[in-house]
From TrEMBL:
Reaction(s) catalysed by this chain's protein: indole-3-pyruvate + NADPH + O2 + H(+) = (indol-3-yl)acetate + CO2 + NADP(+) + H2O
Source organism of the structure: Zizania palustris (Northern wild rice)
Name by which UniProt lists this protein: Flavin-containing monooxygenase
Necessary cofactors: FAD
Nucleus among keywords: no
Any one GO MF annotation of this record: N,N-dimethylaniline monooxygenase activity
Pfam family membership, one: FMO-like
One BP term from GO: auxin biosynthetic process
Entry keywords, A to Z: FAD, Flavoprotein, Monooxygenase, NADP, Oxidoreductase
Family: Belongs to the FMO family.
Entries under InterPro entries matching the protein: Auxin_biosynth/cation_transpt (IPR050982), Flavin_mOase-like (IPR020946)
Transmembrane segments: none
Record EC number: 1.-.-.-
Amino acid sequence: MQGQQQAGHNPSPACIVLDGPIIVGAGPSGLAVAATLRQHSVPFTILERSGDIADLWTNRTYDRLHLHIPKGFCELPHVGFPPDFPTYPTKHDFLRYLHSYASRFAIAPQLGRSVTRAWYDAPASLWRVTTTSAAASSAAATEYASPWLVVASGENAEVVVPKVKGRETFAGEALHSSEYRSGERFRGMRVLVVGCGNSGMEMCLDLGEHGAMPFMSVRSGVHVLPREMFGASTFGIAMKLLRWLPIQMVDRFLLLVAKMILGDTEKYGLKRPKLGPLEIKNITGKSPVLDVGAWSLIKSGNIKIVPEVESFSGNGARFVDGNEMAFDAVIFATGYRSNVPSWLQDGELFTDNGKPRARCPSSSSWSGPNGLYCVGFSGRGLLVSGAEALMAAADIAGRWLQAPISPRCCMHALPPPPPPPPG
Ligand SMILES: Cc1cc2nc3c(=O)[nH]c(=O)nc-3n(C[C@H](O)[C@H](O)[C@H](O)COP(=O)(O)OP(=O)(O)OC[C@H]3O[C@@H](n4cnc5c(N)ncnc54)[C@H](O)[C@@H]3O)c2cc1C
């Protein structure tokens, strides 16, 4: 790795021209790319905004979280989970695995480096990446340049909180699920959880088990499936059946067995969508809920289902059916989004909402023009991220071996970057 001061009159960030790809994000996807590059003996630089690897799992998830799907579907390339891990590892198990993965492949990301801009400098054939650091000692922006840029900043980079009328007037505590750790401090409180995905359901369960009174606000339909059927994981069964049967038939099977095991979820206020769970996952990326215990609390009335929130007031919420209720706290389990559009000037690989343009069930678009790659945006979890990481790293390695770039490009003084486009 070599550095040089960028040409130009304005105070400009230092520019470090790298002899290998830049990877944005040290989550599971970025680590998988790095490990595979290491195996190809290709140098790399990971830029990670937080102070540790796997920020989502380290800092933005609740205590009781386990992997939603069995460990066999969540392993990163080259190293399996230790055999003594449970079928559904806890988040702490998963983090232990990720840390040992990083040290095994000698992956040392540049931590506390948030990527604020990346653009392709066509005359220099380089991606130029501007970062800022949270550390007071190195507050200045730093610029990196490389012929290859791997976007691994995740589908869950920023929280999504819907704009609801009167939200700022609510006097109780309001938080996003990324800030929730445990139901302990909500004991005895009436808590409204907005959203009924896997996180919303599991937080309601956690609140109920800690003596709080959870209410779950449900806007649209949701498929709830038991996490296991016939002693095997529902996810695993679905994957096996999909090898032989059309998706609609597998969906019908899953829903039939779910009804036998759970009963009629509509009777308790959880409408089932018209399309089946796997079809919805394929089209929208939205996962069905794999029940880990919340369902029995819904049936016993310990978790109450309420409709969509119409507005908030000082002490509670009004729902679209006209009912009003008082709450002590509100938790928004309303998901996340990619932050790629805020920093990547690309226009070809990513859409305006930060997803790869060609994303469809049968293809994951991990490669774009000019040495741009993305890993972890398939909407289909860690297994697919691992496969994408293998492909992206092998592609980069092939190009890197053909064109070692460091001596050549470090001779150039890079021109100052053009101003970012308006907006
Ligand atoms: C509660 C929850 C449970 C889940 N359970 C499962 C499961 O069981 N199985 C499964 O397959 N998937 C699961 N997922 C999906 C999850 O997103 C993936 O497992 C995994 O974390 C994706 O890895 P990633 O590296 O692509 O993204 P992330 O884990 O989000 O990592 C991206 C990294 O990029 C960094 N970053 C973002 N923006 C920038 C920037 N501008 N500059 C520098 N760094 C940046 C972030 O800080 C982060 O460390 C779950 C998600 C959630 C929220």
